[in-house]
Specification:
- The complex is a heterodimer of chains A (551) and B (284).
- Chain A is mainly alpha-helical and 551 residues long.
- Chain A has a single domain, classed as Cytochrome c oxidase-like, subunit I domain (Cytochrome C Oxidase, Chain A).
- Chain A has helices spanning 22-27, 32-61, 71-105, 114-133, 161-189, 202-234, 247-281, 288-301, 317-329, 331-345, 354-377, 379-385, 389-419, 425-451, 467-497, 536-541.
- Chain A starts with 21 loop residues before the first helix and ends in a 10-residue tail after the last helix.
- With 284 residues, chain B is mainly alpha-helical.
- Chain B contains 14 helices and no strands.
- In chain B, helix 11 packs antiparallel against helix 13 (234-265).
- Classes of the chains: A mainly alpha (551), B mainly alpha (284).
- The A-B interface holds A 196-198, 288-290, 292-294, 296-297, 300-301, 303-304, 316-319, 322-323, 325-326, 329, 333, 549-551 and B 187, 190, 194, 197, 201, 208, 211, 235-236, 239-240, 243, 246-247, 250-251, 253-255, 257-258, 261-262, 264-270.
Chain lengths: 551, 284
């Protein structure tokens, strides 16, 4: 097989995997659409792996005193589950949607740095592969996704799992930084001349703000990861208190990254919701400027709240008090967005399509996760509940309810654009109901388990009152989610087998990506429509009733 | 003396300061034609300055409380200059007299200089006051220990306060100049404020976590006696100082950034350019 391939013409479709050199054409591609799709496939593959790990956790915890999995393997599984879902599912999926859509939404034909784009993807991919290679190299990391020192130091984690964790995440971190640089430069330099920055679609705006967050947060994590690698490989003492280092310093590094990371994962979902809700409510977004400006507030404030993850490490009351207040404050801009989304739906002509259902489930579950988050800003509550299943429930409501549901909304919404085919609505609704009901069954009950005192990170538990039944129900919920996901994959498989039938704009949406064929050809635009407002396609379709001109 | 007695004691309130406050307010109200919002902003700024320089809060400085000194710095350097700039009518600052000074006439051009002046004032103001306090009261603050015989013990505070206020005024000028056409572009303003926020956060972080080094001193009773009428250990005092600079300082800049962005989202640059030149802010 020749390693040289013809450069495809602009007017051609994306290469098919079935053609002779199709696979090579994809692997060697620097096209933003192909890379976006590859990011999404990468996220889906790791979602399957992370999901299976979750099922193993739930199978182990279904019954008290269970010994299906050994404690050692359980530690590895829950560490890998968390790390996979955050760094290899939610991050690549968000970046993938951004990579695919940003040039299309701003009237550009490519990202600013196409090769950097490919480099970022392959670094993420390589990081994930290294992380999982640890299973074949003596054991996966087992110190939790937060990898706290000194547990993660050589004295307590003697296998090479933690080293693979460190190197794997350094690589994915470099990939994320590359992607962030690319997003910022693309938005600043490659916009259609008509599009002023204050006219950006909200999804683009959120990814743009998010890119700054990533640029500031990931170097912090990578610095910490490098320092720990030096500790482990060269016997340094950055995080070893016994020899003059500080284990708490690791927590500062990790959470100075970790709290912004919550928003790095959530902001793209906010952007998706801000596109989906208006289209399916047939109304422009209510309070565009508040939704957009509150993202900046969230981004900036997210760096002033990380110590709330450390309320139990023994910081003083003064420090705790300040971080309690600032953590409550960050709820204001987030709450503002919720009000705006509800305001958009108010008196709208709502179409209950699958993306809209996911958007509505997002609103409810994310609000709930936000409220339990506020409860964690109250220091004594954290002291009581931080090491219980209440916290597990809280962050799953934030990460799944607040991010994954948004991503599902986005996938259902943009799938016709990416593939030229519409996902089956009936199967989509089965996926939705099974997953959302299963999710709430699993994680709502875990709040109760937490309040009852069930600690997290334990591989089994005694048969205490209500623990067995609640855990069994939680496992049943996980099974429902699993079935829901199986239906989702079946839906994708079945749909991709069908011929392309979708036109340019099947949802009657308003942003520029819907002005291109579905799927777009290699060159996105021959001619970019004139843009005078935040809803260019609305203006074109409704010349008598255009939006307010902004340029 | 407990805190209530201390704060209610009239001798701890500066009568001269109060008189100056009333005089300044009267002059502002009589001489300058401004909107009600601007009047409120100016009154707030003046009141805050009085509270940190003339009220019992200012006197707490004499008990060796570093957090009070930090509060003074925040108000003088970060809060009051913004409030005052927003309260001034166009002509008060955009006139022949002030326009001779390049930093006033074209702050957009010199924004790096104004930023550096602000950041230097933020940091040196802190270290200077920490050193002065250390020399006066013999406490180690942020790892700084100055001898009682040092010249710092006799260094007057007033010039420091004035310099801080001037530096704060310059720092705020490119973003809050009363003449909108002389301000930085809104997005540049946000970056300007964000980097200022990084500076104040870094200082706050430093002071907060340096407080651990003061924890040994908590064991020495004499340092607790300094802290009447607001009993506070050296460590708590220092953490409070750092956190005030870090968290509220950062929130101040975040709120300012959000306000700027909210106006910018609605703006039509072509139309606004004409308005900016023709319509002074005070007449709107």
């Amino acid at each position: 097989m020749s390693l040289y391939i013809d450069i495809p013409e602009d007017k051609e479709q994306l290469p098919s995997l079935k053609t002779g050199q199709g696979k090579l054409a994809w692997m060697a591609s620097v096209d933003h659409k192909q890379l976006g799709i590859m990011y999404l496939w990468l996220a889906l593959v790791f979602f399957v792996i992370g999901g299976l790990e979750a099922m193993m956790i739930r199978a182990q915890l279904a019954l008290p005193n269970n010994d299906l999995i050994s404690p050692e393997l359980y530690n590895q599984i829950f560490t890998m589950h968390g790390t996979t879902m955050i760094f290899l599912v939610l991050m690549p999926a968000s970046i993938g949607l951004g990579t695919y859509l940003i040039p299309l939404m701003i009237g550009a034909n490519e990202m600013a740095f196409p090769r950097l784009n490919a480099f970022s993807f392959w670094m993420t991919c390589l990081g994930g592969m290294l992380l999982y290679f640890s299973f074949f190299a003596g054991g996966a990391p087992d110190a939790g996704w937060f990898n706290y020192a000194p547990l993660s130091e050589n004295n307590y984690s003697s296998t090479q799992g933690v080293d693979y964790f460190l190197v794997g995440l350094i690589l994915t971190g470099i990939g994320s930084i590359g992607a962030a640089l690319n997003f910022i430069t693309t938005v600043l330099t490659l916009r259609s001349p008509d599009i002023k920055l204050n006219m950006l679609p909200l999804f683009v705006w959120m990814i743009f703000v998010n890119a700054f967050l990533m640029l500031a947060a990931f170097p912090l994590l990578n610095a910490g990861l490098f320092m720990m690698l030096i500790d482990r490989q060269f016997d340094a003492h950055f995080f070893l208190a016994s020899t003059g280092g500080s284990a708490i310093l690791w927590q500062h590094f990790f959470w100075a990254f970790g709290h912004p990371e919550v928003y790095i994962i959530a902001l793209p979902a906010f952007g998706i919701i801000s596109e989906v809700i208006p289209v399916f409510s047939r109304k422009p977004i209510y309070g565009y400027k508040f939704v957009a400006a509150s993202s900046i507030a969230i981004a900036l404030l997210s760096y002033s709240v990380w110590a709330h993850h450390m309320f139990t490490v023994g910081l003083s009351n003064t420090v705790n008090a300040f971080f309690a207040i600032s953590s409550m404050l960050i709820g204001i801009p987030t709450g503002l967005k919720i009000i705006n989304w509800i305001g958009t739906m108010h008196k709208g002509s709502i179409r209950l399509t699958t993306p809209m259902l996911w958007a509505m489930a997002f609103l409810i579950c994310f609000t709930f996760g936000g409220l339990t988050g506020i409860s964690f800003a109250i220091v004594p509550i954290t002291w009581q509940l931080t090491d219980t299943y209440y916290l597990v429930a809280h962050f799953h409501y934030v990460f799944l309810g607040g991010s994954l549901f948004g991503l599902f909304a986005g996938i259902y919404y943009w799938f016709p654009k990416m593939s030229g085919r519409m996902l089956c609505s009936k199967l989509g609704k089965w996926h939705f109901w099974l997953f959302v009901l299963g999710f709430n069954l699993t994680f709502f009950l875990q709040h109760v388990l937490g309040v009852l005192g069930m600690p997290r990170r334990i591989f089994t538990y005694p048969d205490l009152p209500y623990w067995k039944v609640l855990n069994m129900l939680a496992t049943l919920g996980a099974v429902m989610m699993f079935v829901g996901m199986a239906i989702f994959f079946w839906n994708i498989y079945k749909t991709l087998k069908k011929p392309r039938t979708v036109g340019e704009n099947p949802w009657d949406a308003w942003t520029l990506e819907w002005a291109t064929p579905s799927p777009p050809e290699l060159k996105n635009f021959d001619e970019i429509p004139r843009v005078h407002s935040r809803r260019p396609l609305w203006d074109i379709n409704n010349p008598d009733n255009p939006d307010k001109k902004l340029n | 003396m407990n805190a209530t007695d201390y704060f209610l004691n009239p001798y701890n309130w500066s009568f001269t300061g109060l008189l100056a406050l009333v005089l300044v307010l009267l002059l502002y109200l009589l001489l300058l034609k401004t909107s009600n919002t601007q009047k409120v902003l100016f009154c707030s700024a003046s009141l805050l300055i009085y509270l940190v320089l003339g009220s019992p809060i200012a006197d707490l400085d004499n008990y060796g409380l570093h957090s009070v000194s930090m509060l003074q710095h925040i108000i003088l350097l970060m809060v009051s200059p913004i409030l005052i700039l927003k309260s001034l009518p166009l002509k008060a600052i955009d006139n022949k007299f002030f326009n001779i000074i390049p930093l006033f006439n074209n702050p957009k051009k010199y924004f790096i200089i104004t930023w550096v002046i602000g950041a230097i004032a933020m940091w040196t103001g802190h270290f200077l006051s920490a050193a002065m306090m250390s020399s006066k009261y013999g406490i180690a603050i942020c790892g700084i220990t100055a001898s009682k015989n040092s010249w710092l013990a006799h260094f007057p505070e007033t010039p420091v306060f004035v310099l801080l206020f001037v530096a704060g005024f310059l720092l705020a000028l490119p973003v809050f100049h009363p003449n909108k056409s002389k301000r930085l572009h809104p997005l540049k303003s946000v970056v300007y404020l964000f980097t200022a926020c990084v500076s104040c956060s870094a200082l706050g972080l430093y002071v907060t976590f340096m407080a651990n080094s003061a924890s040994m001193l908590e064991a020495i009773p004499v340092f607790a006696t300094f802290r009447n009428p607001v009993p506070m250990s050296v460590r708590t005092d220092q953490e409070l100082a750092g956190l005030m600079m870090w968290v509220p300082g950062c929130i101040l800049y975040v709120l300012s950034s959000v306000e700027i962005m909210l106006h910018w989202y609605d703006a039509n640059p072509d139309i606004d350019k004409k308005q900016l030149i023709e319509v002074p802010i005070s007449d709107k």
